[in-house]
């Protein structure tokens, strides 16, 4: 199996307090990996290290330069201050240093339909319910067509039907060759993954 993203012997500290010790992760093409563990065990921290938004205290994260990584963080409250509509927020996922083409707009529309937010396209993020907001951020993440998806409790705010749709989208991404790394407290959801990394014990 080819690893798209690997982390070896990762350790991390916040202001000297150890959070992760000697963690190893291999995100392989066409596979899903669950990251489990209790609150505060370091799941979000691990995803931030894999995405490169935090630097490890020890160990290293490696990925080939052509591998694109999409991160859906657990905490995204800061963006509510921006005057973005739902459609604009999803489109951001396609801004790869160029103007959006017709195909980009079609991909944005398709994901908004699948996540049932098409009718909310002109609303501001701060005018949405928690689950509608989460659907918007999921659409922004999935529209990116990355090789690696790092998803931090992606369905925690979703109703059962929408959770099922997200699981379908995850399965499609994996079939298409992507690696999905999914932090979750939901056993059923973690069971979708072929492998798991359990933190905090
Ligand atoms: N910015 C920060 N500064 C200091 N400590 C932090 C910071 N962010 C997280 N921590 C601490 O690091 C530990 C791991 O936090 P993290 O958010 O990675 O856990 P988690 O497994 O994602 O938890 P949850 O299930 O609640 O999302 C916790 O003890 C937390 O209090
Ligand atoms: Mg977390």
UniProtKB/TrEMBL annotation:
Molecular function terms, GO-annotated: ATP binding; ATP hydrolysis activity
Keyword match ATP-binding: yes
Domain of life assignment: Bacteria
Coiled-coil spans in chain: none
Keyword vocabulary terms for this entry: ATP-binding, Nucleotide-binding, Transport
Gene3D superfamilies, per the entry: P-loop containing nucleotide triphosphate hydrolases
Domain ABC transporter: 5-200
Family to which this protein belongs: Belongs to the ABC transporter superfamily.
Protein name: Zinc/manganese transport system ATP-binding protein
Organism: Paractinoplanes abujensis
């Amino acid at each position: 199996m080819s690893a798209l993203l690997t982390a070896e012997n990762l350790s991390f500290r916040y202001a000297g307090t150890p959070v992760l010790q000697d963690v190893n992760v291999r995100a392989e093409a066409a596979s899903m990996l669950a990251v489990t563990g209790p609150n505060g065990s370091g799941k979000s921290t691990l995803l931030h290290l894999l995405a490169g938004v935090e630097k490890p205290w020890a160990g290293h994260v490696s990925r080939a330069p052509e591998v694109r990584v999409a991160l859906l963080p657990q905490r995204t409250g800061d963006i509510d201050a921006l005057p973005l509509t739902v459609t604009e927020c999803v489109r951001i996922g396609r801004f790869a240093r160029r103007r959006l083409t017709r195909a980009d707009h079609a991909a944005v529309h398709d994901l908004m339909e699948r996540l049932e937010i098409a009718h909310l396209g002109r609303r501001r993020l701060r005018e949405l319910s928690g689950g509608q907001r989460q659907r918007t951020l999921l659409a922004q993440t999935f529209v990116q067509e990355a090789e690696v998806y790092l998803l931090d409790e992606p369905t925690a705010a979703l109703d059962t039907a929408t959770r099922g749709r997200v699981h379908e989208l995850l399965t499609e991404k994996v079939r298409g060759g992507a690696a999905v790394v999914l932090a979750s407290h939901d056993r059923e959801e973690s069971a979708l993954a072929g492998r798991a990394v359990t933190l905090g014990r």
